[in-house]
Amino acid sequence: MAFAEQPINVFEQPVVNAGPDRTMLKGGFIILNATAAGTGLQYQWTPKTAIENNLVVTPKVSPMLTITYTLKVISADGCSAKDEVMVTVLKDIFIPSAFSPNGDGINDKWSIPFIDSYSGASVQVFKKYGQKVFQSTEKSVSWDGKFNGKLLPVASYVWVLNPGSGRKLMYGSIMIVQ
Predict the structure, then answer these.
(1) In 3D, which of 65, 76, 64, 67 has the Cα closest to residue 18?
(2) Measured between alpha carbons, how far is 33 from 36 in angstroms, rounded to an integer?
(3) What would you report as the CA-atom Rg of the chain, rounded to the nearest whole angstrom?
(4) What is the pTM of this model?
(5) Do residues 152 and 146 lie in contact, with contact meaning Cβ atoms separated by under 8 Å?
(6) How confident is the model at residue 87 (pLDDT cuts 50, 70, 90)?
(7) Confidence at residue 141, expressed as pLDDT on a 0 to 100 scale
(8) Which of 3, 78, 126, 139 has the greatest CB tally within 10 Å of its CB?
(9) In b/e form, how buried is each residue of 15-41, taking b as 16+ CB within 10 angstroms?
């Protein structure tokens, strides 16, 4: 009886997760939150549209239109894996015009969705005669309607948003309701 032996090498396939789908404001940027596991990995994002460095796992992107990015990961052994992430680009900032900080869990805070995609954005809120009652330069804006720890009365307040990076200042009003 004849037989032959041949060694077989089995290489582990890398694991890749391009991260959750994201939403951002037009003219801003976000960092894609991808992860990957394997040995000696190389990364390649496609398309190369509006991406700062397509050869890193967590690139900075600033597309002007909604786009789907694909991350391909290749291990040192030549095995590969892919995953996709969609970046939805909003044309305009939506700024709510009212909120009710009454503790019922519904619209208790005033926030500006996706403002974190604008680096350096800041917002201020003023009473009728110009007294500043809120200011934020954080990545996200979330105001609970309080000034010096006390809930402000039902009224209209003026907000000023500086989107940063040379963009025009924006103005409007916010109403605290019950």
Answers:
(1) 67
(2) 10
(3) 24
(4) 0.79
(5) yes
(6) very high
(7) 83
(8) 126
(9) ebebbeebebbebbbbebebebebeeb
The answer to whether residues 89 and 68 touch, using CB atoms and an 8 Å cutoff, is no
pLDDT tens-digit readout, 93-109: 899 999 999 999 999 99
Distance CA 41, CA 78 (A): 9
- Distance CA(149)–CA(172), nearest Å, equals 24
Contacts of 65 (CB under 8 A, 6+ apart): 89
Q: Judge contact between 35 and 17, C-beta under 8 A.
A: yes
Instruction: Encode pLDDT of 1-60 as tens digits.
Output: 788 888 888 888 999 999 999 999 999 999 999 999 999 999 999 999 999 999 999 999
- Residues 6 or more apart from 4 whose CB is under 8 A from it? none
Stretch 149-168: mean pLDDT, rounded? 92
In this structure, are residues 131 and 96 in contact, taking their beta carbons and an 8 Å threshold?
no
- Across 96-154, the runs of DSSP E, i.e. the strands, are 98-99, 110-111, 122-126, 132-136, 142-143, 146-147, 150-151
Alpha carbon distance, N-terminus to C-terminus of the chain: 90
68 touches 85 (CB < 8 A) = yes
